[in-house]
Recover the amino acids of this structure.
């Protein structure tokens, strides 16, 4: 059975919710295609996590927009906000569908990969393990360590999500990191997160 | 072999579906940001194009004699096509807000500007190095990280092609990470001397 998170009203600025929904849905598209091309289960699972988050945010946005409307004029101008959020939610669902393909082992034809590979960058998703040297390090230090064309695009900690996290952010055990870039740097990031490499330099 | 030929066509179509659906998303958000019916109409036209292309794509996939062991791969192709179509639909839905004549709420524009991937517009000044160059030569993406989505010249909207030559006074609509916006302005305005100043 699928478990749905119970959603309670929280006062959150509609603008903030919309920014987050838009950012996450666009990120999800990139992640989803990448998961399909490289047949990556971890990335596909991350997409599904993000999809749940967008669903929750879309509910919250509608609730807050409803409360914000005071008269007919407000309702007319706010309905557009709700439509845009719904469309972004639909985009995130579409990304979720791609992730579903990957997880159900349907996959894509190898020749599609060849055609797309030229345009898509590779992504990786890692979890900071309990014996990783990264615990307590700043994102900035990690960026330096894997600098060879690697871009850290997502930091997820429990329910918190940061897209393009700040350099100052410190890493904790269990943090989920998504990065894109050159395979060499991504490989190094994976080893650092798993704890199989304990040297930041080199 | 005819089979291989049609397979290449299938892949090309899928790539075009994917690219078009992503372009539509950017254009749809731009249409909201600028409350532009022209851009919104452009999205609707692309939506029709995607619908047709998607149908042709599915027909072509189905007309292949698919061996049992290939069926999963081809199902994957069909599903990816469906996804691009869904994204195109969502973009059309966004653009429809503008076409319905609903005054977009100010927070829509604010949210689009605040997002990591933003849409911006810059006017090309007479002194800009872009003037007289084709989009291919201008290498806007290489310089700024932003993609030119549409060009407004006078009253007309042009769809950018590699050989489109940029003229002074053109309004370029571009999307990309917000960090590229300043560089985009510098490139469109003038020389380094004016860097940092937003002279439009």
């Amino acid at each position: 059975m699928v478990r749905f998170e119970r959603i309670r009203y929280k006062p959150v600025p509609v603008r903030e919710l919309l920014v987050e929904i838009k950012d996450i849905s666009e990120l999800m598209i990139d992640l989803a295609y990448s998961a399909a091309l490289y047949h990556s289960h971890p990335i596909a699972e991350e997409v599904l996590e993000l999809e749940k988050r967008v669903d929750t945010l879309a509910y919250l946005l509608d609730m807050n927009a409803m409360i914000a409307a005071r008269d007919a004029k407000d309702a007319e101008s706010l309905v557009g906000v709700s439509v845009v959020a719904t469309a972004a939610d639909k985009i995130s669902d579409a990304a979720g569908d791609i992730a579903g393909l990957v997880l159900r082992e349907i996959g894509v034809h190898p020749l599609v990969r060849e055609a797309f590979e030229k345009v898509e960058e590779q992504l990786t998703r890692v979890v900071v393990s309990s014996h990783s040297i990264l615990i307590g390090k700043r994102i900035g230090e990690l960026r330096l360590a894997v600098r060879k064309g690697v871009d850290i695009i997502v930091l997820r900690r429990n329910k918190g999500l940061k897209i393009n996290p700040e350099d100052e952010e410190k890493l904790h055990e269990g943090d989920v990191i998504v990065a894109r870039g050159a395979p060499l740097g991504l490989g190094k990031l994976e080893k650092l997160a798993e704890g199989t490499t304990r040297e930041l330099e080199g | 072999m005819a089979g291989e030929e049609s397979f290449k066509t299938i892949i090309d179509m899928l790539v075009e579906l994917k690219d078009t659906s992503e372009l539509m998303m950017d254009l749809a958000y731009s249409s909201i940001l600028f409350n532009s019916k022209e851009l919104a109409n452009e999205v609707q036209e692309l939506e029709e194009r995607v619908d047709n292309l998607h149908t042709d794509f599915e027909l072509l996939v189905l007309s292949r004699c698919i061996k049992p062991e290939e069926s999963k791969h081809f199902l994957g192709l069909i599903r990816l096509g469906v996804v691009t179509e869904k994204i195109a639909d969502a973009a059309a839905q966004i653009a429809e807000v503008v076409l319905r004549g609903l005054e977009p709420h100010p927070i829509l524009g604010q949210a689009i500007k605040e997002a990591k991937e933003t849409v911006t517009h810059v006017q090309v000044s007479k002194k800009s190095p872009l003037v007289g160059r084709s989009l291919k030569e201008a290498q806007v993406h290489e310089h700024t990280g932003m993609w030119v989505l549409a060009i407004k010249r006078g009253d007309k909207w042009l769809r950018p092609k590699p050989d489109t030559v940029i003229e002074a006074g053109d309004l370029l609509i571009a999307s990309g990470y917000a960090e590229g916006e300043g560089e985009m302005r510098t490139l469109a305005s003038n020389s380094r001397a004016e860097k940092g100043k937003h002279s439009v």
User: Anything to note?
Assistant: Chain A has two domains: 14-110, 121-194.
